[in-house]
Automatic annotation (TrEMBL):
Residues 23-39 have a biased composition (Polar residues). InterPro entries: GlycoTrfase_DXD_sugar-bd_CS, Nucleotide-diphossugar_trans, Och1-like. GO terms for biological process: protein N-linked glycosylation. The keyword Transferase applies. GO terms for cellular component: mannan polymerase complex. This is Nucleotide-diphospho-sugar transferase. Residues 11-20 have a biased composition (Basic and acidic residues).
Length: 363
């Protein structure tokens, strides 16, 4: 899929993986071995040369200036891992077993969505109350595996599957931007359901009856659907896709495109000459790494299979299917949006209740 800013990614059957040629350095100690010397101290000393001129006097060396800051796109050396981080290892095992059971070389990422529920929290302790949504996901979905991604697991995921973006990932100015990239990478590489820590299920996934599971490689829900002219005061797009709950088969190409498009937008906020980010980075998060990027790339992907203009989507109350991509109406993931036509949390087609904690704004 020639997605926006996809950067020519290679999508393997076991997840999205970006290939990059790395300089090869030998790990063989013999390649750096110097000739052995005798233990005779006399032979360790320099040989005297007759009539040789005296050596010039030594002078104290001047202090070495500190190295300049590395540009955000310079690839640093990556130390070998001794063991896989827990979340990564668990997700990889489940994904591989799922693919072995359901996929064939011809099906690739069009296989069913694996039964994993992911949460991501980077940068310290998760907010008070986040355990409630986690508890509900686990209790309501006994046949799904719950996986919580921390900084270590997210770092390993990014540097392993998106090595050319690893330097930028490390230097992103806001933790929430790293969390955004991590959720997209988790879905692209492992597949499953992603949920924010304040996105609680209103009913078990088995009761999400409007989702055509046999056809779905990608499932998203509407967050905003408004014809107000002042929509920019409360949203980034007139029709906007929610990023607090996302579903995907492993290896779906849309997520590599989302990450690379986000990277393109993020680079615009960085000045390599001064090694400085824009002062108003927080105001740009939703547009450059959050729901606006997801909306633009996902609707572009869906647009290859149908009309995704605002006119075509505005006011939708039923599920729309675009190839393997499924778009749910407001009520499913944003039942609170009564003013835009959502029917409330008690509706049979309401699947997610979002808490709007806004905890990311302080990161």
């Amino acid at each position: 899929m020639a997605g926006i800013g996809s950067g020519g990614n290679v999508h393997e059957a076991k997840g999205v993986r970006e290939l990059r040629t790395m300089p090869i350095t030998s790990s063989d100690p013999n390649s750096r071995r110097t000739p052995s010397t005798e233990t005779n101290h006399a032979k360790d000393s320099p040989a005297e040369v007759p009539n040789s001129p005296p050596l010039p006097p030594t002078t104290p060396s001047s202090p070495t200036p500190p190295p300049p800051a590395a540009p955000i796109d310079v690839l640093p050396p990556i130390a070998p891992e001794t063991a896989l981080p827990a979340a990564y290892a668990k997700a990889q095992s489940i994904r591989d077993a799922h693919q072995a059971k359901h996929q064939s070389p011809k099906s690739k990422w069009t296989s069913p969505i694996p039964q994993m529920i992911h949460m991501v929290w980077l940068g310290g302790s998760s907010p008070v109350g986040s355990t409630e949504c986690k508890r509900q996901w686990i209790e309501q979905n006994k046949d799904w595996e719950f996986i919580f991604w921390d900084q270590e697991s997210a770092d390993y995921l990014m540097k392993t599957h998106f090595p050319s973006l690893w330097p930028m990932f490390q230097r992103l100015p806001k933790i929430v931007m790293k969390s955004d990239w991590a959720r997209y990478a988790v879905l692209g590489v492992m597949g499953g359901i992603y949920a924010d820590v304040d996105a609680c299920p209103l009913k078990p996934v088995s009761q999400w009856t409007t989702v055509p599971w046999d056809k779905a490689g990608l499932v998203v829900g509407a967050e905003i659907d408004t014809d107000r002219s002042d929509y920019r005061t409360f949203a980034n797009r007139q029709f906007q896709v929610s990023s607090w709950t996302l579903l995907s088969a492993a290896g779906h190409p849309v997520w590599a495109s989302v990450i690379h498009e986000s990277a393109r937008r993020v680079r615009e906020m960085y000045d390599p000459a001064t090694d400085q980010w824009w002062p108003n980075v927080t105001a740009e998060i939703c547009d450059r790494s959050g729901p606006a990027v997801v909306t633009d790339v996902v609707l572009h992907y869906m647009g290859m299979h149908g009309d995704t203009s605002f006119k075509a989507l505005h006011g939708m109350t039923k599920v729309k299917v675009f190839g393997d991509a499924v778009l749910l109406p407001l009520t499913s993931f944003a039942p609170h949006a009564h003013g835009q036509g959502a029917r409330g949390k008690e509706d049979p087609e309401a699947y997610i209740g979002h808490g709007f904690w806004g905890s990311w704004k302080g990161q």
